[in-house]
Design brief:
single chain; mainly alpha
Length: 201
């Protein structure tokens, strides 16, 4: 067994363990940390496939931004996870049945024949100077340019919709108007009252 295959099986075992702990950990912070471990391990597997750009993007975007934000939110909200775990045993058979149905559908659509050892070829070694980023950009902006642009438009619409839903005016919401603050004058906020002085006897 080659060294790369040993590394692959070791990373695969760590990835399966981390993914399992994400859904079974009772503490949400522990689940998020195991998800970070799963992302790092998946990035290592992509490095074995010589997909360096995707591995770096996974670490920078998901681990460096999304998961850090998620950890801050979880720790700031101080979520009481006890009510969330109530009824877990009661709904476990339904969850297992849905998971088995999803697995059956994926196997029926993709087919086991695509995952056999004789169908999956070993990735070819690329020559020196090969750029994974350049090849990814070439395929993305030539063969898949229209799906890429459609996905970008959908994400833009989702961002605008989220901002509109968040920034709508509510009667109970207090907000500041910078234009009115700039136009404020001293006479509008300060009243000088002149009173005659009184001498105490």
């Amino acid at each position: 067994m080659s060294f790369e295959r040993i590394i692959f099986y070791a990373f695969a075992a760590i990835l399966v363990y981390a993914a399992g702990r994400v859904v079974t950990a009772r503490n949400p912070v522990h689940a998020a940390l195991h998800l970070v471990l799963a992302f790092f391990t998946c990035a290592g597997l992509w490095l074995l496939l010589e997909a360096e750009f995707l591995a770096i993007v996974l670490v920078l975007v998901y681990v460096g931004a999304v998961m850090v934000l998620f950890l801050f939110v979880v720790m700031m909200l101080d979520i009481n996870s006890a009510p969330l775990r109530e009824g877990f045993i009661r709904y476990l058979p339904v969850g297992l049945a849905v998971a088995a149905l999803m697995l059956f559908e994926m196997v029926a659509i993709v087919g086991v024949r695509y995952f056999g050892p004789e169908q999956v070829a070993i990735p070819a070694r690329h020559p020196e100077g090969y750029s994974n980023t350049a090849e990814l950009g070439r395929v993305l902006y030539t063969d898949y340019v229209y799906p890429f642009e459609i996905a970008a438009v959908i994400l833009l619409v989702a961002i605008i919709a989220a901002i509109v839903l968040t920034m709508r005016r509510r009667p109970e919401t207090k907000y500041q108007d910078p234009a009115k603050q700039v136009q404020a004058r001293k006479a509008d906020r300060l009243r000088v009252v002149k009173m005659s002085a009184e001498k105490k006897q």
